[in-house]
Design brief:
about 0% strand; mainly alpha; 2 domains
Length: about 200
């Protein structure tokens, strides 16, 4: 009888325990997100980007004028970004994750600065009349973004970034190879590493 009275005297105890359990689960989830790996990078999306790059390279080869080449690649970059974003969101939903979870936000925040720098340098190089340096600049800075963002993703992502950086350095050293190295990088590397990500990390 005394035990029953003691339980009745504290009717809020079950609610308190429930709230505490929810708080603990929320803390565990936040901790896992903060220390986790961004696995929503879509291999199929990366391969689609590579396909678009090869098509852009083939089309750009028909127009020797540098400004036409710039417009084609800029348009392809915008389209490829949309495809990649859609593929990431779709893969995240399939895994019942958020594309902007802790690791996802870190990936994006570390990836974007190099791309912003690339956009600024593109304008500067075009204004200075140095379009031959654009392929190397794009490859190098894109690779830098992939490496820094990929530090929060699966191993294949930063490895791909290193490949882009190597091709970018070569393109800056030998500007005449710029178009071919663009095709090899944005086309070939995306296709190769996209296939690896699809095979090893589920799509």
């Amino acid at each position: 009888m005394e035990k029953r009275l003691r339980l009745d005297d504290n009717p809020e105890q079950p609610t308190s325990l429930s709230d505490r359990a929810i708080e603990n689960l929320s803390f565990i989830r936040r901790t896992m997100e903060a220390s986790g790996t961004f696995t929503a990078v879509s291999g199929l999306g990366v391969m689609a980007m590579g396909t678009l790059a090869l098509l852009a390279s083939a089309y750009a080869s028909r127009f020797p004028a540098p400004d036409a080449d710039l417009r084609i690649w800029a348009g392809t970059a915008v389209l490829a970004s949309g495809v990649a974003g859609y593929a990431i969101v779709r893969k995240a939903r399939r895994r019942q994750e958020s594309a902007l979870s802790g690791p996802g936000r870190k990936f994006l925040l570390n990836f974007m600065p190099a791309l912003i720098a690339g956009a600024v340098l593109t304008g500067a190089l075009v204004t200075a009349g140095l379009p031959s340096l654009l392929p190397g600049t794009w490859l190098l800075l894109y690779g830098t973004g992939v490496v820094t963002g990929g530090a929060f993703s699966v191993r294949a992502v930063p490895a791909m970034g290193v490949g882009f950086m190597a091709l970018g350095a070569l393109a800056l050293a030998v500007p005449a190879w710029g178009s071919s190295l663009m095709s090899l990088g944005f086309g070939g590397l995306h296709l190769a590493f996209g296939a690896i990500i699809t095979w090893r990390y589920g799509g």
